[in-house]
Design a protein that fits this description.
Distance between the termini: 13 Å
Helix content: under 10%
Number of helices: 0
Largest sheet: 4 strands, antiparallel
Structural class: mainly beta
Strand content: 25-35%
């Protein structure tokens, strides 16, 4: 399964999942829950959610996982050492 979701109203924050293994011990899983973390599409240079648009040139567009690395930000955990998940996908087989 694959899914991608824009995190509106940001122009370039998104989350998603890709290539989720749905087999457990050789059998199809009936359900699976997967968390998604925020990513940055690289088309806007703003740092915070309410930062005015700061368009980036096409040679700057690099998709990257959002990181905290000791700096606070809208997705950082309480001690600024990692990023909190922003979504939980529930996958059900039919």
């Amino acid at each position: 399964p694959q899914a991608i979701h824009m995190m509106a109203p940001s122009p370039d924050w998104f989350t998603g999942i890709k290539n989720i293994e749905m087999c457990v011990d050789g059998y199809w899983a009936k359900t699976m829950t997967v968390t998604g973390v925020p990513c940055d599409a690289g088309v806007d240079g703003g740092v915070y959610f309410r930062t005015a648009d700061v368009p980036q040139g096409l040679n700057m567009n690099k998709i990257a996982m959002i990181k905290c690395d000791g700096a606070s930000g809208p997705f950082c955990n309480e001690d600024n050492t990692g990023v909190n998940p922003v979504v939980e996908f529930l996958i059900e087989t039919m």
